[in-house]
Write a structure and sequence with these properties.
48% of the residues lie in helices and 11% in strands. It is of the alpha+beta class and 190 residues long.
């Protein structure tokens, strides 16, 4: 059985870790506000989401949005604009709270019907010298258990998500699973 890649990209292969591609896809599925945080409509919508209830406000504070109520009111009424650093904190808090809020819903959807079909697009070898290239095919598989993956994603545990993807899911591909640790994209729907 292959080991984890230690020196990825040494010969020019390009791609990202499969777990990072899964994180991107889950973030895409969980995204609710399309307007960028740099526009007034974007940061106002995020602030409304983060301050709608006492529970969401507490979660936002835990996620790093620690400003006074007076500052929040000034931002929401348009009297003041958040600084660049504050916009980053708003975006980080929004993503963190949104992940926690939609995790259970996503988990139910991904696990329903016996799992979710996943498309794995192999790494890009266009910059690898011809004799060093290997045949890595596009693969599809059915992931039946998303519990550890979604839990690690919701809590922001990158190492836990990488372990869940690499050690629980990829070995189901058979003896070639190490070829899919790095990919160009992973696609699935919920």
């Amino acid at each position: 059985m292959p080991e984890r890649n230690i020196d990825f990209g040494k010969f020019g292969a390009r791609g990202i870790k499969g777990s990072d591609a899964v994180t991107r896809r889950l973030d895409d599925l969980a995204s609710g506000i399309a307007t960028p945080v740099t526009e007034k409509r974007g940061w106002t919508a995020r602030l409304n989401y983060l301050t709608k209830t006492g529970r969401s406000r507490a979660a936002a504070r835990t996620a790093g949005l620690t400003v006074t109520d007076r500052t929040l009111r000034a931002w929401q009424t348009g009297k003041r604009r958040p600084s660049k650093a504050s916009l980053e904190r708003i975006e980080t808090a929004y993503r963190t709270v949104r992940r926690q809020n939609v995790a259970n819903h996503l988990l139910r959807r991904l696990n329903s019907g016996g799992g979710t079909r996943v498309e794995i697009h192999p790494l890009n070898q266009s910059q690898v010298a011809r004799p060093l290239q290997r045949v890595v095919e596009y693969r599809t598989m059915n992931v039946r258990h998303w519990d550890r993956i979604v839990e690690a994603w919701a809590t922001g545990d990158h190492q836990g998500l990488d372990d869940a993807w690499t050690l629980d899911v990829l070995p189901e591909l058979g003896s070639q699973w190490g070829q899919y640790e790095y990919v160009t994209n992973i696609g699935f729907a919920a």
